[in-house]
């Protein structure tokens, strides 16, 4: 895995112990969904692997549906025929998907669906095949995958955090209170995966004039010893586009980031759909765009 991403020019400080702790030892891991390519002469030396999972239905699920698959990751190490290994793995995996009568396969770490590699660099639990990883995109394209969504990655060094200068936000800051609170237990797959490797901390904005109209966001705080990336960073969970025009949500985000900076957190990362209305405000706070990720898809229903 490390060799694959380093070949693409991406830093990937991943080792076997971290993979085991965060992926292989979890209850969600199914060995039948993990395919490894080896050389018969050296069967103890993996050459490549791919890992897929079945996506849970989006609630509320009211009618039966065909399974949908997430091809969470495909990695090929140093080998003279990297493309051949990748295609052999994808072909074998597709046989399994068709045996399950899957209707759709999504390729790439999936931000909205909770891919299992949350927080593991260079993926950071965000979205899609990194734009630098042209090989993986080519392998998927050769198997009939097409781009489905583009997501933009953002990163903020908290020592570079800028306070918002919007007058409306300055006024709201006098009227509202932002406080951390203990986030409820996870009930969806994405948050359950996050809880396995992060401390989930919520932040709530309250306003005396509207005590019932509370707004919340979540930060997933990494542990420098046990967390996925081994750093004092954080992942900012989803920012729904509908909230971008609400000044109270913008204030909530700014104050939550300020609280993390006071905790001596170093870095916050997140991902947004390309063109999200949140992007200008993130830039105003000091976030920098740090690359794109593409999510691919392949329809299996009706394909021979």
Domain unit count: 2
| SSE series | HHEEEHEEHEHEHEEEHEHE
Biggest sheet statistics: 12 strands, mixed
**Proportion of helical residues:** 25-40%
On the 0 to 100 scale, the average pLDDT is 87
Which architecture of the largest domain does the CATH hierarchy give at level 2? Answer: 3-Layer(aba) Sandwich
List unreliable stretches of 5+ residues.
none
Give the CATH class of the largest domain.
Alpha Beta
Whole-angstrom Rg: 21 Å
Please count the beta strands (DSSP E, at least 2 residues each): 12
**How far from one another are the termini?**
32 Å
How are the secondary structure elements laid out?
Blueprint: H1 2-7, H2 16-24, E1 34-39, E2 42-54, E3 68-76, H3 82-99, E4 104-107, E5 129-130, H4 134-142, E6 146-157, H5 167-175, E7 177-182, H6 189-195, E8 199-206, E9 215-221, E10 233-236, H7 247-262, E11 267-273, H8 279-285, E12 288-299
Parallel strand pairs: 3-4, 10-11
Antiparallel strand pairs: 1-2, 2-3, 4-12, 5-12, 6-11, 6-12, 7-8, 8-9, 9-10
Helix pairs in contact: 3-4, 5-7
